[in-house]
Design goal:
elongated; alpha/beta; 64% helix; 5-stranded parallel beta sheet; 8 strands; Rossmann fold
């Protein structure tokens, strides 16, 4: 024989087919008592709360609870997240549950006005529960699923509800907003604001989430972490946010997650509210179009240039199957929704940096809030691997093109153009750096590195320039040995060249010498590169080796290197470089003469 718990589960499944929460229903005992008391005093109530607070979960539980406790004769549940329920559909569904056989047939033959009169009479005289969930979708509230009804049909539903006011049937309406169009004639002041779970329930839910992902020892360690406590405060007991965020503790520490969500100089209360809204927007949006388009923003960090960069990026995405059927208008509409939600913050480039340049002043920068960036990246990590690779490949290509543009600006003879290039690199640094990491992982072209190297050069930031060069050269040591031809091989040599320059500027002469010798070895072995480009690089490397040898006091070696550089430049008719090498030979010869002269004078004084 089945026990009572099994009977309860079977009853719930038949009556209310909504999927139960993954981690079970926790807490809300106080809320349930207060809602039931409020319904006794006024038979229509608005349950209001942000997306992800657990309104639907609570209503589903209440359906089950009220069915099992005979709180009502029957329960009718309608969700505007599922479909745009019209009055005719609502009457039909309720009629099927209230009437049987011949009486149902007679009811269905009535006009709509006749059905309303008959059903209202029944509902006012008997203990039923009517639940209308997700009303924000009915009116098309911002960031809600759009199952909109025209005003005429909304007025019909309002009329039905108003006729139930004061009767025995109790109605619970749920929404993210105030639903002021319904308020005067229905729930009036009977509003229950649903907040996050209480402290005890939060900890229980967190434990259930983490037990499925972490070992007992890891869970015990995390529970004592001060940043876990901060993270729990930030999540504020909102179930969906907890489920999404806490799952990442399997790969990341509480401190790392908290810091990435918190961002800089953000009020914690505002941040908690924005986080909950953001989770709801990303994880509660069932539209496949919206989901695919949201993922397009996942690779970006901190800033996106909207006016020129974003359209070009999307144009590249349209070459891929997942995004081939979308237009930029679709993408732009999504951007607008994210801006209205406060997840993307638009700003213009500072006027003092633009010097009244009318073309450049049209650049709008979108600042990505930390929680939006973090959540999109987390969602991307759980997406299909093939789609992710395609998306990241477009992201890399996009920033390779931008890097060339920014570097061109920074290499301009025009100081204002240089400043603009530096500004864009500063704003886009995290995106450029992320794209560079992907390039290194894929053993692809690293032109982004040369852009960032130029950026540090213009900033005169020797330490960061050196660290970047060391990191890139270290990463390139893992490249496949067959990468000895073409652009990628040449880039390897030039990355070592930048490292050698950085060592030279930091007066680490021996390391600079060793790096230049590696450059020579690579340049002499690579093929598939235009001969003049390769020879110019060889000449430049010999020239730089001459500089390093001079600093080390190895004048004869320096002289040899300058002579080698001079021969190469002469053969290429590179007049400017040829003149520089000749000048350095004169300087070294003069230095050697001075040393010889001092040596002879020293011998004469003995």
């Amino acid at each position: 024989m089945p026990n009572k718990e099994q009977e309860y589960d079977v009853c719930c499944q038949h009556q209310f087919p909504l999927a139960p929460p993954t981690w079970g229903f926790v807490g809300r005992q106080l809320e349930i008592a207060e809602i039931e008391k409020a319904l006794e005093q006024h038979n229509i109530l608005l349950l209001r709360g942000m997306a992800g607070v657990g309104k639907t979960t609570l209503l589903n539980y209440l359906c089950q609870r009220w069915q099992m406790t005979n709180f009502a004769q029957d329960i009718f549940y309608f969700s505007y997240e599922q479909q745009a329920w019209t009055l005719a559909q609502i009457l039909f569904e309720i009629g099927k549950k209230v009437y049987e056989n011949s009486e149902l047939a007679q009811f269905q033959e009535l006009s709509q006005q006749g059905q309303i009169q008959k059903l209202v009479s029944e509902l006012r005289s008997q203990d039923y529960i009517l639940i209308i969930d997700n009303l924000e979708s009915l009116t098309g509230q911002r960031l809600a699923i759009k199952n909109i009804l025209p005003k005429e049909q909304r007025d019909q539903i309002q009329n039905l509800l108003s006729q139930l006011l004061g009767g025995k049937t109790r109605a619970v309406l749920s929404s993210r907003s105030g639903e002021y169009w319904l308020q005067p004639e229905t729930f009036q002041t009977n509003i229950y604001p649903l907040q996050g779970l209480d402290q005890e329930a939060r900890l229980l839910l967190a434990q259930r989430i983490l037990q499925s992902a972490l070992s007992a020892s890891h869970l015990a360690e995390i529970s004592q972490d001060q940043y876990f406590e901060k993270l729990m405060q930030l999540l504020a007991g909102y179930p969906l946010a907890m489920e999404v965020i806490l799952a990442n503790l399997k790969q990341q520490s509480p401190q790392e997650i908290w810091q990435r969500l918190q961002g800089k100089d953000v009020n914690s209360e505002d941040q908690a509210e924005r986080l909950v809204k953001c989770v709801g927007y990303i994880y509660r949006n069932p539209s496949r179009e919206a989901q695919n388009l949201l993922l397009c923003l996942a690779p970006f960090s901190e800033f996106i240039e909207r006016s020129f960069s974003l359209p070009n990026y999307f144009q590249q995405l349209q070459t891929l199957k997942p995004w081939s059927n979308y237009t930029f208008d679709n993408f732009n509409n999504l951007i607008q929704e994210a801006i209205k939600g406060g997840f993307l913050l638009p700003t213009k480039l500072a006027s003092e940096l633009l010097n009244n340049n009318k073309i450049i002043s049209e650049h709008y920068i979108l600042k990505i809030t930390p929680c939006f960036s973090y959540l999109l990246k987390a969602k991307l990590d759980h997406n299909q691997e093939t789609t992710n690779k395609a998306l990241l490949a477009v992201f890399v290509k996009h920033y390779q093109l931008l890097a060339d543009s920014y570097q061109s600006l920074m290499q301009s003879q025009d100081i204002e153009q240089q400043k603009l290039g530096v500004l864009f690199c500063k704003l886009e640094y995290n995106n450029l750096h992320q794209a560079l990491l992907l390039c290194l992982k894929q053993q692809a072209s690293i032109n982004i590195f040369f852009c960032l190297d130029k950026y540090y050069q213009l900033l005169d930031d020797l330490n960061r320039r050196l660290k970047l060069s060391e990191f890139v050269c270290q990463a390139q040591q893992t490249y496949l040995p067959q990468i000895q031809t073409g652009k990628r091989a040449f880039h390897r040599a030039m990355a070592l060249d930048r490292l050698a320059i950085s060592y030279l500027q930091m007066q680490q002469y021996q390391k600079s010498k060793e790096s230049y010798q590696q450059v020579l070895k690579l340049l002499q072995s690579i093929s598939g590169v235009e001969q003049r480009q390769k020879q110019l690089a060889l000449g430049s490397t010999y020239y730089q080796l001459g500089m390093v040898s001079r600093e080390l006091g190895e004048l004869e070696v320096a002289q040899q290197h300058y002579q080698q550089a001079l021969v190469i430049f002469s053969n290429l008719s590179a007049r400017n470089e040829q003149g520089k090498a000749y000048q350095q030979l004169k300087v070294v010869a003069q230095k050697m003469q001075e040393i010889e002269k001092r040596r002879e004078q020293g011998l004469g004084n003995r």
